[in-house]
């Protein structure tokens, strides 16, 4: 399983247990309109593993059209649920408050691979669903060229040695053969 993080309550119950996330069968459920949080809470209370990918966006509101940062589901009305292979309580999931139905083909709930769910979790952790206009998500690979900004090395080009797993982790860079650590906010990817 993946380690917990402070915002897990909004994402579902990705806590470690005897059965890891990769050992579960994953499915997509459709929620009632605007009921993603209610469904996550209800599924979590029923001890069902659930993941709701979240995005960070900027909205304007009020008369003065002030900018506000808002966290909301990446896929409106859809959640991922992980069920034990031997015991798939489809009926229990459907009874949970806020859940409308499973995504199905010919009435049969369609499984989703763990690697697809894990890829979404990793992409969210790396900030790829941060759609604020003031913050561009950075997608990096080892060997990518970057330029440092907002540091004493402003404008200096570097090479990525290690890609961070989360937005909070540092990027390991090489500058002139020396290793250097920087936060994602201190670098910009070269074109």
Structure description:
The chain has 191 residues and is of the alpha+beta class. 17% of the residues lie in helices and 34% in strands. It contains four helices and 14 strands. The strands form four sheets. Strands 1, 2, 5, 6 and 9 form a five-stranded antiparallel sheet that branches. The chain is flat. The two termini are 35 Å apart.
Would you spell out the secondary-structure blueprint of this structure?
Blueprint lengths: L7 H4 L13 E7 L4 H10 L3 E3 L2 E8 L4 E8 L4 E6 L6 H6 L3 E4 L1 E2 L2 E2 L1 E2 L1 H12 L19 E4 L8 E6 L8 E5 L2 E5 L4 E3 L2
Give average pLDDT, whole number: 83
Oligomeric state as shown? single chain
Could you tell me the strand content as a percent range?
25-35%
Helices and strands: which structural class? alpha+beta
The arrangement of helices and strands along the chain is HEHEEEEHEEEEHEEEEE
Number of distinct helices: 4
Report the C-alpha radius of gyration, rounded.
Answer: 20 Å
Q: How is the biggest beta sheet arranged?
A: 5 strands, antiparallel
The unreliable regions are 1-10, 14-18
Sum up the overall morphology in one term.
flat
Helix content class: 10-25%
For the record, give the distance between the C-alpha atoms at the N and C termini, rounded to a whole number. Answer: 35 Å
Q: How many runs of DSSP E, i.e. beta strands?
A: 14
